[in-house]
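Note to self: the last two entries modelled the partners one at a time, which told us nothing about the interface. This time every component goes in together.
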Amino acid sequence: MSRRDFLRRGAYLTTAIATGLPEAVSLLHPRAAEAALMGIGQELRDVLNEETVNRILQEALVSGGNFADVFAEQRFRTAIVLDAGKIDSVTYGYPRGAGVRVVRRNQTGYAFSDELSYSSLLDAARIASSVVENQSRTNPIDVTRRNPPPPFTLQNPEPLMLEYTKFDLLQRMDAAARSVDSRIVSVRIEYVDEVRDVLIGTSDGIYVLDRQYLAGITCAPAAQAGGKRGSGFASMGGRVEADYFARNSPEDAARQAAQQAIRLLEAGPAPAGPMPVVVAPGWGGVLIHESLGHALEGDGIRRGTSLLTGLVGTRIASPLVRVVDDGRWPNGRGSCTVDDEGTPSQRTVAVEAGVLQSYLLDKQNAVLLGLHTTGNGRRMSYRNWPIPRMTNTYLDAGTSDPASLLNGIAKGFYAAELGGGSVDTTSGNFNFAVREGYWIEGGRRTRPVRGALLIGNSLETMKRIEGIGTDLVVEQSRGTCGKDGQMVPVGVGQPTVRFSSITVGGPSI
Amino acid sequence: MPRQSAVELAERIRIQAERSGAQEAEAYLESSTTTEARLRQGQVELLQQSAIQGLGLRVFRDRRMGFLYTTDLRETVLNELVNRTLALTNAATPRDENKIAEFLAVSQSDLEIRDDAVARLRPEDLVRFARAAEESAFAQDKRIQTTKDVRSGTAVQEVYFSNTYIPRQTYRATTVWLSATPVATQGSQRREGTFIDRKRFLADLARPEQVGQRAVERALAKLGAGPVPSARVPVVFSAEAAGVFLQGLFGAFSGLNVLEQRSFLAGKLGQKIASENVTIVDDGTMRRGLGSRYFDGEGVQSHRTVAVAGGILRQYLHSGATARRMNAPPTGNGVRSYDTLPAIGPTNFYIDYGSSTHKLVDEVARGLYVTGLAGFGVDTVSGEYSQQVEGQWIEKGKLTKPVEGVTVAGRLDEMLLGIDGVGRDLDFRSIVASPTIRFRELTVAGGA
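The predicted structure of the combined assembly is written out below.
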């Protein structure tokens, strides 16, 4: 945001006060406002300019090592929780700090400091370098400022909206969800946004600053009647503009979540056993994320523990399958200008016509495998070292009419909305929860059923894909992936997909 | 930061918030150091050393609550954040329960949560533990040629707490851990097994040789596993699997979920919700417990709460606010870190031990012994349960073949009432634990 825009916002704020809105709700996260005024990464750059970064990296490599980097970060977070119709809590968060990493082949030393100062980072550099027991090495380091093109630009990012607008969103959603049915007994709505500034300096000469905006809202109504309970869920947001909520009705999302809770009150038990399964588009991409995505990540490949080790060029899925990891998907949760190692984000076709094309790599694992990084080195925060992670990962659109994918299924399962999933990348055994499912009978979606877990083995399941719809959706409003204790936002996506057989783990035989 | 100045900082910020207009305020300052070494194929792959320091401040004004957290402890920044957070607080809705707990009375007994021997461990010691565990893993069996990694670490945590009524409380706690994840290979099949031990005291930690050995047993047990046909049969959960099951169940005991009708246990206080051999306890005062501490994230003294006694639901678990709303005694379950609001969470949460472990499998004519659970299929609102499992098939009381690629499913209320055996093998390696338990009958969904 430019200084002029900021001042214009100030003018709006004054108007809001004049029209009688309470002053308190017209605030903007105080430090986010200041940072917006100062320019991308300026507060970090004040402590860590090119020269100080050079000296810290020099210190980090004093005992040898192939590579070192400095990662500094500050975040401004605003969180609001509405429960039982009331604004329950409001939170401002302001974590900041920096870490230093030293890499020698497969070895990593990492240390960080919550205090952002030159001296504390020199200490971190010395501690991180203790992993290396080598002779000294003193090649001069000279980082240069880079300005890689962003995948998209936000003119008026959602997190910089006035707090008043955010409170209003929550209250509108609450009212909409409650209006659906008197059996809605509880609604919890959580809003969180952040402005994240990062500064990355690397011993291979990169110095880059970036600012990342992210906002999300979740709505979870619960229904109760006659001793039965059901819960619904909706999410909105992403790396979006402030007018996102004008173009996408929060009331509609809240009503749909409430209707889902009501439907699940009456839903029957899920079936048990293997059967044909059709998975709905969008968030259904959790299936690809778990079944294939994690096994593509370079750490498991380099260690030889992933089931996809050494399979580039091999058919691993049905010929209909193309899997893409795209760090530049517009407004995607997993999108970024550079990854957390300073590599520009990219679009990687991991699987083409069922044949494995590429792994997802960070710098360290790429070097060890004799390959190049694919811009997938990500970390949760300055307290963590980067590891290979997905960005926005999706199964690409196919050629089938989505409605036709149910044709010919005498008895099967339709996964309308998924929950979360997990995978063991060594065995390939994965699972994903279904929040709302339906029987498929005689080629038609019929009775609703309650939650069930669907399970499978990656390679077997990928070969059982027998139809892919044209209706690709990449979900950008939810998706947080956990690995090795590090949580990062990701996008997942897919069109409608039909599997010849998946094991449905319901209670009803 | 020296301890003295940390405690003074917490108090100073709390007082400043009160001077700036908070009627009540609470500062929670956390300072901890973590060191972890990861080893693979005899080589150190990662050495991580870190010192965390962060402050969380809750402010209360006219029964409204606001919260801020930061790692930036510069005075000018803190002053600004306090003022803006107070202003933001005006936008929250007044609620009667929004006030500070004033009933802390720190337990006098020594909980033994701090071991100086853990605090003294150096990175080289951790590398030595990990190396011994990995060597032990490789020595067990020729089918173990690689490990995913072996990890050993320590954490020393210090908490400084100050609120309007309880100035200057502090405690220090240590944790030490060791884990191994060997990979067993047979033909083209690879399976990993993990064993983790985690303790407050170094002397209580499993020996590296045991960690390596038990992890290998787990990896080898999975080789050759496959699905079994779908059936309704007795299912035994190993102690570790039962602990994971109980973890998933915790949300049903949360006072907030009960109040908001988001728990299948809502409205069942005093009723029989489990079979008579099930007693479930949350105990924040357990000696050397991984979840033990002198007071919770709101300054409420730690308690021992019997949630379920002989199958009867006796108490829900509370934060200060939900205890007030339900007019129930506080249970000290306000769990937090400096960067989160206190939320209802477990301290040491467990199913109490029962009569005999071995009998539980021996008595089963045909059923499933579950050693591992995965998946988000536990719905504590509706009470639906479905998880991916691995384990062994039981025939005539004997474990006969490894099983994977199946789920077990049921309704949580029926499952709890159908627990027909509880073992004696309760062992705390995480804050939620259980002995082996047996369900009379669950649905196993597998092959055709």
